[in-house]
Design goal:
3 helices; 7-stranded antiparallel sheet; alpha+beta; 213 residues
Length: 213
Amino acid sequence: MTRFGDLVKPVRAGIVIVDPLRGTPQRVVVLQFNPETLQRSLAPQASGAEGGGDRTEALRLKGPAIETWKFDAEIDATDQPELAGDDGIHPQLAVLEMLIHPSSASIRANQALAATGTLEITPVEAPLTLFVWGSKRVLPVRITELTVTEDGFDAELNPFRAIVSVGMRVLSASDLPAGHRGAELYLAHLAQKERLAGRSAAGRLATLGLSGI
């Protein structure tokens, strides 16, 4: 008989914020539930795309495909009162939202520079964000969209249930400087994808009704 304690717990998906210089995790965001679906879109960076290009460039690739991911993250404190304190699930939502906000301190610092007549103010650099979907998918990403749907509130109007739709763009070696930790992680992911493709059995021309090309 298999006991409940003997069951293997599923790996959870999540987001890791990393110091790009030291490579040390600054924060780990574990999704409460693994999303049921994951939508991925890949667009090739082709030299001869959209017509009108040089015919000798038709089969050339300028760089890695532009890849976007989308998923819905559910946060529900209905059956987990310890998840929602006096603030409901505001803290869990705030963690996700701060992935795309600069800190208030950095905004005030830039405002102070502008007030002193600084002509050029460098945009705030966000920490390296990694999306983790199992050990075979650890990718540097930029969060491009967060859509929050709250559908449960307590007496103080604090949300206790929400679905967060997350859109991400994978940062490839074309997006990051050579040697950047994120670029190295992307190249490692691409190399792993090559190894996985090599394990797939090759088809035969005869199956397609062809005897040769």
